């Protein structure tokens, strides 16, 4: 890859970001997994000068493949498996990519080391799904100094802007939507008191921070009783172990459980079953989850999870399009949000209205899950 044009890539990315208004200008994808591809297609047209520059970029390695290092979070959830599959199938040899994949096993130090190894290997691009949102500026400066563009997917990096593009979820909106749904659902069902137990994701990850921030706004604004909040680290085992302890400590005192991903919800379900707590449609406890993976939506269809707020893991095609666009000398968006629907078990409410993280008043449909929805899920 053309390290010598890295400066112009960063300049182009910066220019797009500045023109777009620094964070408020994000594009929203309309369909799963194709966000940057649309951006890429429109941005490559007027790049004759850059295209000349890329002539010496296509001879990136001896085999003609572009080398990409991907530092993945780990393998903690169904969502993560879908994310890994998406990136591995898009960044394939057939698509001109030699992908080096590292599973960082939810260890931030290992993830920094993986990125440094990619820099030492002088890969053409680095893709990072950051376990936590801070602690990145030094290593991203090292990548920049080495002339290696960094693409960030899914979770955000919040203490450095030394990456060319980010594609992922608006986690705060996911939490706000969950709060807005719970408020409207409780009103519709005549439930006046909400006593809530929360199982959060990996502490310090932007997925955890955003969902917590959004949902807690509703807790505070409505005076709901948040009895306890502990991390389940986005795993089924974590969700089960926290819920087992909740069932012992707060027996008969709660009527809402919110899990920050489906795998935690699966663990919480096992723990509630074992403790004789009824949950879901017609149960004593309203169960809320995030991700909306196939197994999660299967539980929504069965009425075991009341509402599931999607987090879209299919960023592989976006990564490929960003790389192809940069290779062609085009410009890419600094940030792109994935489109994410909200799923429910019952036909109680057609939609929810709330003020999103960008300060816009929005009304969004609720999708009642049927078999076709499950069949189409990731
Ligand atoms: O960063 C996305 C989150 O990480 C997903 O909600 C969760 O399932 C995964 O582990």
3D architecture notes:
By secondary structure, the chain is of the alpha/beta class. The protein has helices spanning 6-20, 35-43, 48-54, 78-90, 108-120, 137-145, 171-189, 206-222, 236-249, 262-275, 294-301, 316-327, 371-376; strands at residues 27-28, 66-72, 97-103, 125-128, 150-154, 165-168, 195-200, 225-231, 256-259, 286-291, 307-310, 335-337, 342-344, 351-355, 361-368. Strands 8-7-9-10-11-13-15-14 form an 8-stranded mixed beta sheet, sandwiched between helices. Strands 1-12-6-5-4-2-3 form a 7-stranded parallel beta sheet, with helices on both faces. The radius of gyration is 21 Å and the shape is elongated. 53% of the residues are buried. The structure holds alpha-L-arabinofuranose. Residues 76-77, 79-80, 154-155, 207, 234, 261, 290-291, 311 line the site of alpha-L-arabinofuranose.
Task: Supply the number of helical segments.
Answer: 13
The biggest beta sheet is recorded as:
8 strands, mixed
Give the mean pLDDT: 88
Q: Stretches where pLDDT falls below 50 for ≥5 residues?
A: 13-61
SSE order, one letter for each helix or strand: HEHHEHEHEHEEHEHEHEHEHEHEEEEH
Radius of gyration: 21 Å
Q: Give the percentage of residues in beta strands.
A: 15-25%
**End-to-end distance:** 33 Å
Associated small molecules:
alpha-L-arabinofuranose
Helix share, percent: 40-55%
Total strands: the figure is: 15
> Which outline best applies?
elongated
Trace the largest sheet across and list its strands: 8-7-9-10-11-13-15-14
Structural class: alpha/beta
């Amino acid at each position: 890859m053309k390290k010598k044009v890295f400066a112009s890539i960063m300049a182009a990315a910066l220019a797009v970001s500045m023109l777009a208004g620094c964070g408020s200008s994000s594009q929203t994808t309309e369909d799963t997994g194709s966000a940057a591809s649309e951006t890429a297609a429109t941005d490559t047209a007027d790049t004759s000068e850059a295209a000349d520059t890329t002539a010496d970029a296509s001879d990136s390695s001896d085999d003609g493949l572009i080398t990409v290092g991907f530092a993945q979070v780990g393998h903690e959830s169904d969502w993560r498996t879908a994310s890994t599959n998406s990136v591995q199938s898009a960044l394939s040899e057939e698509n001109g990519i030699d992908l080096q994949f590292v599973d960082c096993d939810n260890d931030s130090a290992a993830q920094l080391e993986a990125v440094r190894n990619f820099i030492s290997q002088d890969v053409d691009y680095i893709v990072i799904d950051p376990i936590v949102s801070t602690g990145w500026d030094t290593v991203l400066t090292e990548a920049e100094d080495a002339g290696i563009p960094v693409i960030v997917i899914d979770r955000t990096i919040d203490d450095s802007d030394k990456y060319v593009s980010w594609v992922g979820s608006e986690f705060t909106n996911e939490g706000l939507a969950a709060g807005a749904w719970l408020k409207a659902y409780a009103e519709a069902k005549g439930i006046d008191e909400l006593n809530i137990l929360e199982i959060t994701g990996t502490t310090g990850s932007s997925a955890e921070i955003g969902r917590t921030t959004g949902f807690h706004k509703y807790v505070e604004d409505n005076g709901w009783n948040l009895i306890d909040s502990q991390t389940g680290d986005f795993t089924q085992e974590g969700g089960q172990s926290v819920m087992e302890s909740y069932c012992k400590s707060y027996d008969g005192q709660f009527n809402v459980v919110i899990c920050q991903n489906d795998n935690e919800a699966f663990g919480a379900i096992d723990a509630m079953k074992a403790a004789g707590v009824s949950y879901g449609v017609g149960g004593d406890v309203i169960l809320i989850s995030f991700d909306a993976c196939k197994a999660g939506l299967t539980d929504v269809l069965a009425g075991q999870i009341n509402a599931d707020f999607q987090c879209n893991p299919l960023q592989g095609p976006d990564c490929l399009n960003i790389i192809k666009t940069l290779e062609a000398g085009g410009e890419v968006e600094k940030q792109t949000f994935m489109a994410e629907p909200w799923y429910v078990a019952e036909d109680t409410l057609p939609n929810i209205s709330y003020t999103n993280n960008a300060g816009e008043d929005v009304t969004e449909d609720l999708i009642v899950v049927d078999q076709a929805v499950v069949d189409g899920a990731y």
